[in-house]
Design a protein that fits this description.
Elements (H helix, E strand, L loop, with lengths): L4 H24 L3 H16 L2 E5 L3 H16 L9 E4 L4 H11 L6 H7 L5 E6 L5 H12 L3 E6 L6 H4 L2 E4 L5 H20 L2 H4 L2
Parallel strand pairs: 1-2, 1-3, 3-4, 4-5
Helix pairs in contact: 2-8, 3-8, 5-6
Length: 200
């Protein structure tokens, strides 16, 4: 189908509105916990502590993307990136735990095996109310794991359960998922600038 000029104008107008809403969300966020996340991940990179990421649906896909960026993208020269794990990446583990323990346990049970005190958990969620991310936050808090969350909408229950919430208060799932990658791509570039400091 070939778009006519009025069709193109409609698409352009809708895209401009989407871009404006995304920019408004980014400009409104409190940057303090983003800075805190940068510093926590830099410290973890230096000490060998781990980063765990979890989310559902598009947020799970973003978690896998971000883990790749942290493992490889922050220091391509030496190949010594951050020890990052996307907890939604292994379908055998996910389906086993969901079947045997319940879907709400798929992330917390993995943390119980992999994570140590001093590690970091980053939750990605639009609503902030998914039972499995709340259980992961609960487990982390009880076991000395520092917690961050990038949240949309009202922030849900995760807003109060997370030690360092990064909250974009808008009711739009796609823009909420956009903010997850934008924040973490910024963090990736910030860390990349520190690579020589870490791996000298």
């Amino acid at each position: 189908m070939i778009l006519t000029d009025p069709d193109l104008q409609t698409v352009g107008s809708a895209f401009s509105d989407y871009s404006r809403r995304l920019n408004d969300a980014l400009n409104a966020v409190d940057e303090e916990n983003i800075t805190c996340l940068c510093n926590s991940l830099l410290s973890a990179w230096k000490t060998g502590n781990q980063l765990f990421l979890c989310g559902n649906g598009g947020s799970a896909g973003n978690a896998v993307h971000i883990a790749n960026d942290m493992i490889y993208g922050i220091d391509r020269k030496s190949g010594k990136g951050l020890r990052a794990h996307a907890l939604a990446a292994n379908t055998a583990i996910l389906t086993c735990l969901a079947n045997d323990e319940g879907y709400e346990e798929i992330f917390a049970k993995q943390l119980a095996v992999y994570a140590n005190s001093g590690d970091i958990l980053l939750v990605l969620s639009g609503s902030g109310n998914s039972a499995n991310i709340l259980r992961a936050l609960e487990y982390a808090d009880k076991n000395g794991i520092e917690t961050y969350a990038i949240l949309g909408y009202s922030g849900g229950k995760a807003l109060q359960m997370t030690q360092h919430p990064i909250h974009f208060a808008l009711d739009d799932m796609q823009i909420s998922e956009d903010t997850q990658l934008i924040v973490m791509h910024y963090v990736m570039q910030w860390l990349a600038d520190k690579a020589s400091e870490v791996n000298s």
